TrEMBL record:
<dbReference type="InterPro" id="IPR005804">
    <property type="entry name" value="FA_desaturase_dom"/>
</dbReference>
<protein>
    <submittedName>
        <fullName>Stearoyl-CoA desaturase (Delta-9 desaturase)</fullName>
    </submittedName>
</protein>
<keyword id="KW-0444">Lipid biosynthesis</keyword>
<keyword id="KW-0560">Oxidoreductase</keyword>
<keyword id="KW-0443">Lipid metabolism</keyword>
<feature type="transmembrane region" description="Helical">
    <location>
        <begin position="73"/>
        <end position="94"/>
    </location>
</feature>
<comment type="similarity">
    <text>Belongs to the fatty acid desaturase type 2 family.</text>
</comment>
<feature type="transmembrane region" description="Helical">
    <location>
        <begin position="197"/>
        <end position="216"/>
    </location>
</feature>
<keyword id="KW-0408">Iron</keyword>
<keyword id="KW-0275">Fatty acid biosynthesis</keyword>
<feature type="transmembrane region" description="Helical">
    <location>
        <begin position="47"/>
        <end position="67"/>
    </location>
</feature>
<dbReference type="Pfam" id="PF00487">
    <property type="entry name" value="FA_desaturase"/>
</dbReference>
<feature type="domain" description="Fatty acid desaturase">
    <location>
        <begin position="72"/>
        <end position="299"/>
    </location>
</feature>
<dbReference type="GO" id="GO:0016717">
    <property type="term" value="F:oxidoreductase activity, acting on paired donors, with oxidation of a pair of donors resulting in the reduction of molecular oxygen to two molecules of water"/>
</dbReference>
<keyword id="KW-0472">Membrane</keyword>
<dbReference type="GO" id="GO:0006633">
    <property type="term" value="P:fatty acid biosynthetic process"/>
</dbReference>
<feature type="transmembrane region" description="Helical">
    <location>
        <begin position="222"/>
        <end position="244"/>
    </location>
</feature>
Length: 352
């Protein structure tokens, strides 16, 4: 069996039926799988998913404190921009373009560390990275961990139900998984510890990193704008952490192939679409991205603002990033220019 076919922990309802078609679980099945896989008392190997959602839940009290005791419109707007733009763009810069696609390289570990910790730590790298490789290999096919044709909840709960790595990897496959994560700087468990914990990440180190990261940012925000600002930004992060889980469903057009538009969505191999909101706030021009996954830039057309690319370019200009891949030229040559030439020809003919 190919590596990407079994690298993720299969859900109890399975990926596909005997005929190879996607199994679409009911909402009840999805929720039952979700809570079963969060239960650390049933199986301590569930710790990483539990830890990830615990962090999300831990952000909610900050929002409540902000609303009840510190509310102000300027801080509310700051929370909105921090969560949607900064955290959204950071996800693209770090988890997506660097950790998964290795679209650029850092000069040294210092800049990697700065970039990793540029915003509140919430999503564990391994949950994102390994499953995202599978997503690209099987987009909108059975086995895609956030297959949009499986429905909203299938994607929304994917980080627990479909994205964690398998707990049954042999040593050779575990080594391959570790190699996919090597450049991220996340310290990997030995095979023996993986067998014990079911994860690449080490629990103690993950908890320490989380505490230091949140402690650093709360203190920084406090010195800038007191508890009011800190609670507004941490509270805003709660909405980002929940909202970001809807992207995989929306970014693949809710499973609807008809949503792809001529002149906008050039890749027709899957259901991905370019959308203005994820594009503007996070540089996620998802149809472009599926055309050129390893490009450090996804906003190819003049209106496609790509803040993640702006960050990578800025780091390159100060020498913190040593190289990047940029597929804009190929995109224009192979897709956009032929499309425009064809369009102009049709327009000219219609004038005659
Ligand atoms: Zn996709
Ligand atoms: Zn990708």
């Amino acid at each position: 069996m190919a590596f990407l076919d079994h690298v993720l922990e299969s859900p109890s309802y399975g990926w596909k039926d005997a005929s190879g078609a996607l199994i679409t679980p009911t909402n009840k099945q999805l929720l039952s799988e979700f809570f079963s896989r969060l239960n650390i008392f049933k199986n301590k190997k569930n710790w990483l998913s539990f830890f990830s959602w615990m962090k999300v839940a831990a952000l909610l009290p900050f929002f409540v404190l902000f609303i009840c005791y510190h509310f102000s419109w300027p801080f509310f707007i700051a929370g909105f921009l921090y969560s949607m733009v900064l955290m959204g763009t950071h996800g693209t810069i770090w988890h997506h373009r660097y950790c998964t696609h290795q679209a650029y390289t850092f000069r040294n570990n210092f800049w990697r560390f700065i970039t990793r910790n540029l915003s509140l730590k919430i999503i564990p790298e391994e949950i994102y990275v390994i499953s995202h490789h599978v997503h690209h290999a099987k987009s909108d096919q059975p086995g895609d961990p956030y297959n949009a044709t499986g429905g909203f909840l299938y994607c929304f709960l994917a980080d627990v139900n479909h994205q964690p790595i398998s707990r049954a990897l042999d040593e050779t496959d575990y080594d391959r998984v570790v190699r996919l994560m090597e450049h991220t700087g996340v310290k990997s468990n030995s095979y023996k510890r993986y067998v014990k914990w079911g994860s690449i990440a080490c629990p103690l180190q993950s908890i320490m990193h989380w505490l230091l990261n949140w402690g650093f940012w709360y203190t920084t925000f406090y010195f800038i704008g007191g508890h009011g600002l800190a609670c507004a930004l941490f509270g805003g992060a709660f909405f980002w952490a929940v909202g970001v889980r809807t992207f995989n469903y929306e970014g693949h057009a809710k499973g609807d192939k008809e949503k792809q538009k001529d002149g906008t969505d050039f890749n027709r191999e899957d259901n991905s679409i370019n959308q203005l909101w994820p594009g503007y706030v996070a540089g996620e021009w998802h149809n472009n991205h599926h055309l050129f996954p390893s490009s450090a830039r996804s906003g190819f057309l003049p209106y496609q603002l790509d803040l993640a690319w702006c960050y990578i370019r800025t780091l390159k200009s100060i020498g913190a990033v040593t190289s990047y891949k940029d597929s804009k030229k190929q995109f224009l040559e192979r897709h956009h220019e032929p499309f425009m030439a064809q369009k102009n020809k049709i327009d000219e003919n219609s004038l005659v």
